[in-house]
Amino acid sequence: MTEFDYPQDTPRPDPSSLTHLADETMALGERLPSGDIPDFDETLHEKPENQWLEMWRSLIANRAALVSLIFIAFLVFLAVFGPLLTPYNPISTNMAASLRAPSAAHWFGTDQLGMDIFSRVIAGTRVSLTVGLLAVSIALTIGVILGAVAGYAGGWVDSVIMRLMDMMLAIPSILLAITLMAALGKGIDKAVIAIGLVSIPEYARIVRGNILSIKQNDYIAAARVVGNTDFRIIFRHILPNALSVIIVRATLGISSAVLDTAALGFLGLGVQPPQAEWGDMLGRARGFIFQAPWTLLYPGMAITVTVLAFNLLGDGLRDALDPKSRVK
Amino acid sequence: MKKSVRLLSLVLVAALFVAALAGCSAPAAKPAATAPATVDTFTYAQGADPRGLDPALVDDGESSKIIVNIYEGLLKYAADSTKVEPSLAESWKISDDGLSYTFKLRKGVKFHDGTDFNAEAVKFNIDRQLPPKVTPDMGYASFVFGSVKDVVVVDPQTVTINLTAKNTAFMANLAMSLAAPIISPKALTDGSNSVMEKPVGTGPYKFVKWAKGENVVLVRNDAYWGEKAKTKNVVFRIIADNSARVLALNNKEVDMIDGIDATVVDKITSGGDKLYQAPGMNVNYMAYNTTTAMFKDTAARKAVSQAINVDELVKSLYQGYSEKATTILPTFVPGYDKSVKQVAYDAAAAKTGLAAAGITKIHMIAYSNPRPYNAATGVALATAIQGYLQKVGVECTIDSFDWTTYKAKVKEGNYDMAFYGWIGDNGDPDNFLNLLADKDPSMNIARWQDPVYIDMIKKALETPNGAARDAEYTAMEKYAAAKAVWLPISHAKTLAGYRPQVSGFNYHVTGNVFCSKVVVTK
Amino acid sequence: MFKYVTKRILMVIPVMIGVSIIVFSLMRVFSPDPAPIVLGQHATIKSIEVWRHANGLDAPVVTQYVTYVAKAFKGDLGTSYYTKSQVAAEIGARFPATIELAIAAILFATTLGVLLGVMAAVKKNSVFDAAGSLFALIGVSIPIFWLGILFIMFFAGFLHLLPSGGRINVMLEPTRVTGFYMIDSLTQGNWDGFKDAFIHLILPALTLGMYSMAIITRMTRSSMLETLGQDYIRTARAKGISETKVIGKHALRNSLIPVTTVIGLQFGALLGGALLTESVFSWPGIGKYTVDSILKSDFPVVQGIVLLVAVIFVTINLIADLGYAFLDPRIKYSSKKED
Amino acid sequence: MTTDTNTLLEVKNLSTDFVMNKGTVHAVVDMSFTVREGEVLAIVGESGSGKSVASLSVMGLLQPPGRVVSGEIIYRGRNLLALSPREMRDLRGNHISMIFQEPMTSLNPVFTIQDQLTESIREHMKLDKKAAITRAIEMLRLVGIPSAEKRIHDYPHQMSGGMRQRVMTAMALSCDPDLLIADEPTTALDVTIQAQILALIGDLRKKLGMAVLLITHDLGVVAETADRVVVMYGGQVVEQATAQDLFDCPKHPYTLGLLESIPSMADSEDDEPLYMIPGMVPNPLNMPMGCAFAARCSRRMPRCTQERPPLYEVEGRLLRCFLFDPSGEEGART
Predict the structure, then answer these.
(1) Which residues in C lie closer than 8 A to residue B43 (C-beta atoms)?
(2) Domain boundaries, chain D
(3) Are the beta carbons of A33 and D187 separated by less than 8 Å?
(4) What is the CATH number of domain D7-277?
(5) How high is the ipTM of this complex?
(6) Chain C residue numbers touching A314 (CB-CB < 8 A)
(7) Is residue C311 part of a domain?
(8) Residue to test with chain A: of D22, D46, D286, most A Cβ within 10 A
(9) pLDDT reported for residue B193
(10) Residues D189, D103 contacting (CB under 8 angstroms)
(11) Is residue A13 a contact partner of residue A67, using CB atoms and an 8 Å limit?
(12) C176-187 per-position pLDDT tens digit
């Protein structure tokens, strides 16, 4: 069967006209009840390897996603090798050169303590990415397990877990994170825990929802009939199917974790000094809005661009993983 | 349906009523407007809400600034120093043994609620801060009245305060803006906590309203016993952010601001506004934890002090708006002497000294909030010092905490070096130098207990005011400097920005702003 | 419908109990001791002990919790350690400021978000669409505290157009009836006060609403695109009615259904965003108060605020659900069965 | 072909393309046909042979990336393609109206029947609200909806599929159109309802005297209702004839195949499998250079894959097949 696939960077034609076009692929005598577009069903039955490859192609065909992917690779490079590349030690003070405007010697200028902002912005990459990745990993691990157990077990287990998630969701996550940080104290490790914990419910909900719908499928019943254990069924059959949604969510989760880290830093609840963290740099530069605006400009831009990149990648992944959303 | 109609008419009537009131007050406001180009409202912006307006229950500068315009104490400080002057007490006599103080009270003074000020009121106010009535949240009760034995009403215009021990600083304490001001006993007995939110004093301004987090509004007390206030309304506006406060001044939303630091000075002057600066009664310091193995030794403390270029540090960090501290006492406090010198900067000597003491790692704790004596925050100061020590081969770790947590951490004592500061309460040298003798480690963060020093403190407190007493304090300073217990960093200047149209304010060294003589022209 | 509402309301109770336990334990078990800050620079070890006892802080945590909950049911949220006032009163005094800001922000976010979203969807692949999408993308990516500072720098610092913070010029302040200055000044005929309150509201509302605006734009665009592809839109066009009506009536109403839920959720999220926005703009609401209180370890206040915010959050979700049912007749008519 | 005086709609050399990244789909190629006043013209073809695109082109309802690239659509002497959107709107729903194939999704779920039905009445007939409602109820009665004055307040989801299609029909007929385009009006309905709806359309046509352009892939329906038939394949007209001629004597190999694949009573009694044309519809993005049907044609000739056959006029009908090339030496007539 010919697949009628539109590259996802060009939007699909209006489904009403598409219906007729897609129908063109139908053999005589087969009557389509309504305007279902056949390629949707096909992707579901594709083999996983194929799906990943397809996804990858689809992703890199999206220009915005590709650019953001390259940018994120660059950020990762900076996070890993940044300290070797910075012109100055990001945490060494030079009281004789405080609050210098951007120049050849200090590309982004210096802060109150004479620390080189360019070096600190680069050093901040590591903090933000670390918090982002680790926090998402924590949230993902716990959230997926809780969601899987709740969705699969059902009954009171489900009720207890989901009510717990409701409780956490009832407090705005940034407020919960701030309260947690106030309780735990400063530090990047604590920020990871705080931000990770508050985003558990999102993943739990997504996974549970997916499991509830997948559970109905025949192949799960089949797996059970041939005597698979529950554990095996969850991890071999159910989770891989929910994976695409989780991946998209996790990518977007990194961007919100980066934002939350910055917010905590801004409020003075982030890292221990003199460690370089973008939000913390912003929070401390607040007073220099007139005297040294560059102290505010670059860390803010670093946060925005990083978050933007992860958001774009998340969007691209969603489009690549879910053909239906390509319409959007 | 009917109910909503009734509600609507009620709202309408209320609206009309308010409109009518506004209409009535308009002509009343007119004469002020036609009078030679002055404005009848003075708006002052500060960084935080007052904690409350009961002087016995609060401990913060933001409250204090407002309190001094509403209340008065028996005594007050002179406009330009901490010399004690009469206020609600017209005259006084101190007994020869220095244990009994008798005050003659001013006649015809009334509280804002119309009740009379008299000896009973004084007794009531002091008694509530003495055992058994005193509560732990009266932060200044023990400091101001700790030495009081009892208060005796001699006649309505005479009151005697008896002390348990000689205390030369007692007179200075009675002029303080915290604990000492006299509140209307009627207001105090009216209901719990009402004075915190609805203060009633005898001062030149009466309280009107307090919108939490927004502003506190005062209006002139037309029945004031002394010279009446020049401007009718005083509004204290709360604008938390430093830069925002400056913008508000530049944009003429407010007439005067405080809590500013070097970073915004240019903006104030370039915006056509003026900068007020005066020496501040405070000290910003670093303390060694003298109970640790590392710093119980004077030589080790000296070596670290030698590594730090305080001069350069203060210049870059505070940009000329803090003076380098050569000693603990601010220059205008009795007992200050030029001859007191701290350990001098000498990186080479520091290196050898530190090597000799075997110091390679130091653990510091610091506060992350700006403080009145350190606008740059303890963290910035700690980081700068970390930089200096790095240069002489010592690695420092900094743990920073917000101010609340920091105070708890200081009390725990798990640090080699810590940062703190002190704002003078009463201009008496004891108020500063007693810190190094205090048994409470949350006051004496160097945890220094030196018998010689403690003896010196005790003796000076009993010496009557005068040159002899001042010399005793100078000697104490020299002793502490030689032991290198603290590294005094700076004295923050008192800074305020104001519009050129504003005149007559008194920004006192105690950090209080007296508004009764303020005039704002158009 | 009634049964559904009742059920949803009953579900709130266990959630609230859970929330109170979470906050209570965070504040009591892990947070720093409030005594030193409450008692000030002259506090002694002894006075701290007395104070802790007077405030029940030396009792076992469980006892403290039970006492707290019992009082909370009577509307007594305790007394602020720091100001010694009733927590409920303290929150009440600041609450209208936050709600006024949040409403302004959500109005801005919804109006502009829906407008941009519809425009982007209708003019798909045009410059409009690209610009709208980029705007929305930046909106979700920019940290709001930074945005707020940039706004202040530009509009207040550079252009001197708008005030940098605060709610209103005090002298124009209306008598507090509702606590919403826009409403109070208007009902009192205080036109200058109304204008001034409005001017003060602009920058904070833009800042706070930016993220939600971006989310709503994205959501409206995709929802609108989906709706525009529906058969009934073709039917509407086949009827020969104007394109404005096709978009404005047939498509919009349908696309707004999922957007409503998002708006509801965003309103809740705004309360979180208010923490940062209020701090940047010195907005005297509960957001700034929360941050201040956390830094002062003022437990009773933090607990009270978190509980209140949780109640609001849950209530708004409930309202959003009901609004959903209102917009979509399929749900309204079948809700009986679903119960 | 000549323009009769009673020609209502004349489509001349219509071509409609969909431009996509992977290439251009020629959905309708050089299509011509006429609809006379009061007649039923059926366009037949497999799903997606271009017949629906053709009807949407007539209605002016094509959505991007669909686009009419050439040709004329002349309705009562006016070229519809040259009309402004506003003029086109006045025509739609008023003079030309349309019924779609998906009654379940073609009504807006969030508005009542009344709301949706009165909309076009008020727009085109300039009636006030009350008169529009009266008219709407009248129309609902006409299409056979019981207790119409009550059902008019229903939402679409409260009605069955058949009822909804009746509502759609009522909506299409509410402004007395001259031409009704019915795009697979019965596909989504079950058999008995199908018959009812078809009968209804037939009845109403007689009653109201309008012409009907019936789009369908169901030859059974065509046989019952149509006056003339256009057969489409791969976006092109392959045969055009009167219904009588076509069913009596189909000529084009594709038409033949279509007719053979209709299940008959006789077939279903034998257990013989239903005939199906072998092979698949060509990829619309990659049309063969010759005859579109060549690959599946049992009577394929070498030239069929080399060049595209033109339309030949044979015995009053039109045929696109080299078998009917009058000059063709290979032309062996059936």
Answers:
(1) 170
(2) 7-277, 284-310
(3) yes
(4) 3.40.50.300
(5) 0.77
(6) none
(7) no
(8) D46
(9) 55
(10) yes
(11) no
(12) 888 888 888 888
